[in-house]
Design goal:
Elements (H helix, E strand, L loop, with lengths): L1 E5 L3 H9 L3 E5 L4 H10 L3 E4 L2 H9 L4 E3 L5 H12 L19 E4 L10 H6 L3 E4 L7 E2 L5 H12 L1
The protein binds zinc ion (ZN).
Length: 155
């Protein structure tokens, strides 16, 4: 799915990219620009702003009001509203930082770009394909937390 996320929901942006969605994040645009982009790019608007949500609905746009207190609550709501599967697929996952596709890379190619300990401990690494970002990812100790959050949101 394609989303446009407003400035207050940076955390949801990272979650949805991790789940493989095309997420644009707008921090500075005014409401009209946000709504215009939502329409032009056929995105679903996610916002915590009730006024903006109502405005989007009045203009016939797809929008979800996201006002939960935690990632679990927000993911759970989105999943129900949009029948969005909360399943991680490493083939589809996108860079949480910039939204570009990721590609699995040979371990040797990222030596020196990740902490030594992680390099020794893990075997699978991914990099962001956007050259200006090119972050490296691996399923480190934080991974079980990510899975816990997804599982809780599915309950
Ligand atoms: Zn990136």
């Amino acid at each position: 799915m394609r989303f446009l996320v407003d400035g207050m929901l940076g955390n949801m942006t990272r979650w949805l990219r991790l789940l493989g969605h095309d997420v644009a994040y707008e921090n500075l645009s005014d409401d009209n620009e946000l709504l215009l982009r939502t329409r032009l790019e056929s995105r679903i608007l996610l916002t915590a702003d009730v006024e903006l949500f109502r405005l989007a609905k009045r203009r016939g746009l797809q929008a979800v009001l996201v006002k939960g207190n935690s990632a679990v609550e927000n993911l759970s709501k989105l999943s129900k509203k949009l029948t969005l599967p909360l399943v991680f697929d490493q083939m589809k996952s996108r860079c949480p930082a910039c939204g570009s596709p990721l590609s699995q890379v040979a371990k040797s190619s990222i030596e020196g770009r990740v902490p030594k300990r992680s390099y020794q401990k893990y075997d699978k690494f991914w990099t962001c394909l956007e050259s200006s970002c090119s972050k490296v990812y691996w399923r480190g100790s934080h991974w079980s937390k990510i899975e816990q959050t997804l599982n809780k949101a599915k309950e």
